[in-house]
Amino acid sequence: MTRKTPSRATDKFDDDDYPAYTMGRAAEMIGTTPAFLRAVGEARLIAPLRSEGGHRRYSRYQLRIAARARELVDQCIPIEAACRIVLLEDELEESRRLNEELRRTAADPSRPPGP
């Protein structure tokens, strides 16, 4: 789940991994509570960065992951199981992406790997 970091300050607006949101704002955006965000952090689904003052900061990517966990919890799935499901879904998506990339490379060996 490593991504490129932006080269310029203005690129941060488009960077899904830039920790732009405070805990309160993040919770509001995904329709949950700060306690839920702490719980998914404790379950190691997401690891928010900390500001210089020690406050949690979340990226858009982390909010999408937390929102997916919230959908599962809303379907009466325990939070630990929901977090595991989200991690497995993310791994499956990455495996599919790599598989497709390998297929394209095998079909056209002159093509360099990558998106």
From TrEMBL:
| Chain ranges of the HTH merR-type domain | 20-88
Q: InterPro entries per the record? A: DNA-bd_dom_put_sf, MerR-type_HTH_dom
Checking SMART domains in the record gives: HTH_MERR
Tell me which Pfam families the record gives: MerR_1
Its protein name is: MerR family transcriptional regulator
Organism of this sequence: Streptomyces albospinus
